[in-house]
Structure formats: structure tokens, C-alpha cells
Amino acid sequence: MDLECPLCKGTKFKKEEGKMDSKWGFTAHKVILMICENCKFIMQFSKGRTIWDFD
Fold first, then answer.
1. Mean pLDDT of 42-49
2. Whole-model pTM?
3. Edge-to-edge, what's the strand order for the sheet holding 13-21?
4. Which domain, by its residues, includes 16?
């Protein structure tokens, strides 16, 4: 099954990876961002979390 944009039904995406820190900075969540190439809607997926990832 292919990924489909919930807004425009597009199927082409740009994939980016990043990290979101918690409010107090004690934990971090790794995320995968899938950005629709048609309408630029961003879908966010968890890649897991880490406690000691300070980069």
C-alpha cells in the first residue's frame, strides 16, 4: 500500500528526518516527515524516542 496525502490524494513525497525535543529537553523524539510534493502537507511519523540523544 502506497502513502497517500489526506488533502490532495497525491502520492509523491519528499522524506526528511529530524528530532523534536521535549519541553524540558530530557527526552527527544526522532521523527520522519513526509512532505507532499503537490500541496506541501506534512505528515509526521515517529521513528522512536531517545533519552540521551543530545546532538
1. 86
2. 0.75
3. 13-21, 28-36, 42-50
4. 1-55
